[in-house]
Write a structure and sequence with these properties.
With 141 residues, the protein is mainly α. The chain has 6 helices and no strands.
């Protein structure tokens, strides 16, 4: 089975996106705009995630063959966290109403914008890296 070859700029753009993680961390911690990681409230968890992303970016830059797999793993984890951050407030509505409490606030307008940006980049990254990984597997397997 033959897959379409991704344009070279796509791979460079994704590696650059991962290497730009310190800028996203500054936007998050200094400006209060968690553009790269929505839905995770604990600052220590966000900081650890940013460090992990930076290491993935360095690994993808140093070993381009690792980029497809690391991109798919990171995209999957981030998309999972994003979906949990959106769904937990929805899932907790019946319990809050049964207890006579105010329901938890879901994502605010800024969070929704962040979720759309992050989700779009993650889906794009996943799809591009899925094709790259399949090419590597069919070439070596």
């Amino acid at each position: 089975m033959r897959t379409k070859q991704a344009a070279p700029w796509i791979g460079r753009a994704l590696v650059s996106y991962y290497l730009a993680t310190p800028l996203f961390a500054v936007a998050d911690f200094v400006m209060g705009a968690p553009v790269r990681l929505s839905g995770v409230e604990d600052p220590a968890m966000r900081a650890a995630y940013y460090v992990g992303l930076m290491l993935l970016g360095v690994a993808a830059r140093a070993r381009p063959a690792w980029a497809p797999l690391s991109g798919m793993v990171e995209s999957s984890v981030n998309l999972f966290l994003l979906l949990v951050g959106i769904l937990l407030p929805i899932w907790s509505l019946p319990d809050a109403w049964a207890a006579g409490q105010d329901p938890a606030v879901g994502l605010d307008a800024t969070g929704m914008i962040n979720a759309m940006i992050s989700g779009s980049v993650l889906v794009f990254s996943f799809r591009v890296n899925q094709g790259r990984l399949m090419r590597n597997l069919t070439r070596h397997g």
